[in-house]
Amino acid sequence: MGDPYITKPKVYLLGRQVVVDQELERFLADEGLTFTTDTAVAAEILNEIAGRTCYLSFGKGRKSNREYLENILASKHGSVLEHAVWNLLITGVSRALTHELVRHRAGFGYSQLSQRYVDESEARYVVPPLYQQNAELRARWQQTIECVRRAYAELAEATSAYVQERYPELPPRERRKWARQAARSILPNACETKIFVTGNSRAWRHFLELRGSPHADTEIRLLAVEIGRILKRESPNLFQDVEIIDEPDGMPSVRVTHSKV
Ligand SMILES: Cc1cc2nc3c(=O)[nH]c(=O)nc-3n(C[C@H](O)[C@H](O)[C@H](O)COP(=O)(O)OP(=O)(O)OC[C@H]3O[C@@H](n4cnc5c(N)ncnc54)[C@H](O)[C@@H]3O)c2cc1C
Question: Which of 98, 103, 198, 205 gets mutated to test ligand 1 (max ligand atoms within 8 A of its CB)?
């Protein structure tokens, strides 16, 4: 095991969309329409096509994709934004953070590391940002974590022995699951987890607004800042009003001009 203490999340952008050009051409030919756009970003093209389908405005009206999507955001035509999707794999975050993350229901899908199946004896722990600033508090926090780490390993082993004796008919995999599901009850919120998150741009925007705010918990706020940077790079037009700013508290936050589209 490397350093068991984590101070920063990692975000892996694993998936983005593509446009199937032949099918777009087929649709335009079938309907006798023309359509050109000035963006090469698939998510932005798909959103523009979705919006233009509503009014059959292909080849008409606003010229640039940025201008087109600005109008979608300003007029709160939010359902159009649900057609752009990104898949992120997030590691180095605490169970406290993911408990807050999974409260975001609309437009998200989640797959998270299971503490019933995975042995957490060698788990890593996320140091809360406040304790990263203060050596004395961090040392006290770390001592507590080390106590829990030992307690979990000992309890898991004792529980496993008990389950084997009490339920000898269970297959070994089930026995391990039963022992871990009981022993995990003493694991702290700081325990590291990994979560695969798929979200559409409407959902990501709402998440960035709520969790990138200075009112949010610091760990999830810094994650939102990181995700905001990634999504802005991915799609400068869909996230054109999302800004990362430095706050008087010394940390960055996310500001979204078009609130809750
Ligand atoms: C600073 C902060 C502090 C918080 N503190 C607490 C706390 O102390 N305790 C706590 O329990 N939670 C707390 N929360 C969580 C919060 O209440 C929300 O559960 C979380 O932010 C997800 O937001 P959401 O429901 O808007 O998101 P989503 O579930 O993604 O929903 C998006 C939007 O869809 C609509 N929607 C979704 N589901 C429904 C529905 N069933 N009915 C009607 N409309 C719906 C709403 O307009 C909603 O805003 C806190 C959140 C923040 C940002």
Answer: 103
Mean pLDDT computed over 118-123: 93
**Can you give the pTM of this predicted structure?**
0.96
Catalytic site residue 211?
Answer: yes
- Mean pLDDT to the nearest integer, 110-136: 96
Q: What is the dihedral of CA 131, 134, 137, 143, to 10 degrees?
A: 70
Classify residue 66: in a domain, yes or no: yes
Residue nearest to atom 24 of ligand 1 (CA): 104
Contact call for residues 180 and 115 (beta carbons, < 8 A): yes
In a domain, 213, yes or no: no
Q: Which entry of 124, 184, 202, 211 is annotated as an active-site residue?
A: 211
For residue 203, the ligand 1 atom closest to its alpha carbon is 30
User: How far does the centroid of ligand 1 lie from the alpha carbon of residue 104, in Å?
Assistant: 6
pLDDT-above-70 percentage for the chain: 100
The closest-lying atom of ligand 1 relative to the alpha carbon of residue 210 is 53
What is the span of the domain harbouring residue 78? Answer: 18-82
Of the residues 82, 107, 126, the one at which a domain ends: 82
Question: On the CB side of 206, how many CA atoms lie within 13 Å of its CA?
Answer: 18
C-alpha to C-alpha distance for 192 and 145, rounded to whole angstroms: 12
Average pLDDT over residues 218-241: 98
Strand partners, 126: 6
| Tally of structural domains, the chain | 2
